[in-house]
Design brief:
Elements: H1 6-12, H2 21-40, H3 42-56, E1 60-61, E2 67-68, H4 70-74, H5 78-81, H6 87-106, H7 108-111, E3 113-116, E4 119-122, H8 133-162, H9 170-173, H10 190-196, H11 203-225, H12 227-239, H13 243-255, H14 280-307, H15 316-333, E5 366-367, E6 370-373, E7 377-379
Antiparallel strand pairs: 1-2, 3-4, 5-6, 6-7
């Protein structure tokens, strides 16, 4: 567990919640299993629990080597004591907030009822009126909102650590399904998806769309492009164009279960910027792959947007189909750029049938009534 004492709980629960801490602590065990473990992934969760055990027994040390216990972690007087929390201790503190609020939200009904020999009764007090149904629903809704805000903060904290020069949680978190980089997708991060469809840069929202992104990818994009080209462009989206990033990203991807199907021989066909510079021909290929990736990401994001009631726009379907059509035209006009991964594609045109290996503009940059912007809009 990552919270086990009534002192910790009293420091974290809202001031107007006066239920018995022992009742909540019992319910929190289930909340940890259903919400916190999936959020972190089992390897990182186990590491967090090990650190918490040290805190629980007063055997943990802060950044400066001072001994501290679990109560010091939530104490409002911690600055007075001069504790400087380690990254793992900061993560525990961040996790405790959504743990408490999600427990309250999931168990509002249980906490408001007393079950004894006399039967089932609503919990109340002489100086309080019984909460109405609307009040209970508002309380539960606000607890859910605060819990999800807390989870969002945890994901942002872990992502910031992943980009640090000396990350603490990267290897463990990369094995989690909530890892910020979804290596098996054309749109592998929340930040990238947010560039096409506004989701308030929410990691939780993006993770909730991952299955739909994969469905669109497999049922809309793959049949049009073929397996090899689709897999290659997915790897290009994941590993990036910089040679210095390739090894690092592939090591992380190897920890991610989705990437087990990645074919290593495809990587030799991916363009990248080498340490020792790049030729004009390589630069041309790089720009072509970037262009195709952008068009495909546009199509995927708009198809996902089209299928989501909260995100849908009136033109989502038209924009998605138009972006995919532009991608297909671009591939057919530049077959040579994708040599080695395009041969099984329905769009494959033999080299002798193409007039040039240079990237060609699509047949038209216009459609009736507007000009297409690959970042996701049409301008009249």
């Amino acid at each position: 567990m990552i919270l086990s004492t009534s002192e910790e709980l009293n420091a974290l629960i809202p001031a107007n919640v006066s239920t018995s801490p022992e009742r909540l602590l019992t319910l929190m065990e289930q909340t940890e299993r259903t919400h916190i473990v999936p959020l972190l992934g089992k390897p990182l969760y186990e590491a967090v629990c090990q650190e918490y055990e040290k805190l629980h027994h007063g055997e943990a040390e802060d950044e400066e080597g001072n001994l501290m216990d679990a109560n010091n972690l939530v104490s409002t007087e911690s600055d007075h004591f001069g504790f400087k929390y380690t990254p793992m201790q900061q993560l525990i503190r961040l996790l405790q907030v959504p743990l408490v609020y999600m427990t309250l939200a999931d168990n509002t009904g249980i906490l408001s009822v007393s079950l004894n020999d006399g039967g089932m009764n609503m919990v109340s007090a002489e100086d309080y009126g019984s909460a109405k149904k609307d009040d209970r629903e508002a309380f539960s809704r606000d607890c859910f909102r605060n819990a999800h805000k807390g989870m969002e903060q945890v994901l942002l904290f872990l992502e910031e650590d992943a980009h640090a020069d000396e990350p603490v949680f990267l290897k463990l978190w990369s094995q989690s399904p909530t890892f910020y980089m979804q290596y098996g997708l054309l749109v592998p991060t929340a930040t990238k998806f947010n560039q096409f469809v506004p989701i308030d840069d929410s990691r939780e929202t993006y993770l909730s769309l991952v299955q739909r992104i994969r469905f669109v990818q497999d049922h809309k994009i793959r049949p049009e492009l073929g397996d090899m080209l689709t897999d290659a462009i997915i790897q290009y989206a994941a590993f990036g164009p910089q040679e210095k990033d390739r090894t690092h990203n592939f090591e992380l991807a190897a920890c991610h279960s989705v990437v087990n199907s990645f074919e290593e021989d495809l990587r030799e066909h991916l363009p990248f910027k080498r340490y020792d510079g790049i030729t004009s021909e390589e630069l041309l290929k790089l720009r072509g792959w970037n262009r195709l990736l952008l068009l495909l990401q546009t199509a995927v994001c708009f198809y996902v947007e089209m299928d989501n009631k909260k995100l849908r726009r009136p033109d989502s379907d038209k924009d998605a189909m138009y972006a995919l059509e532009r991608a297909k035209i671009f591939i057919q006009a530049n077959t040579a750029l994708f040599e080695g991964v395009i041969e099984d594609s329905p769009l494959y045109i033999k080299e002798e049938e193409t007039s040039s290996t240079k990237p060609q503009c699509e047949k038209s940059d216009h459609r009736p009534g507007g000009v297409f912007d690959p970042l996701g809009s049409y301008y009249l």
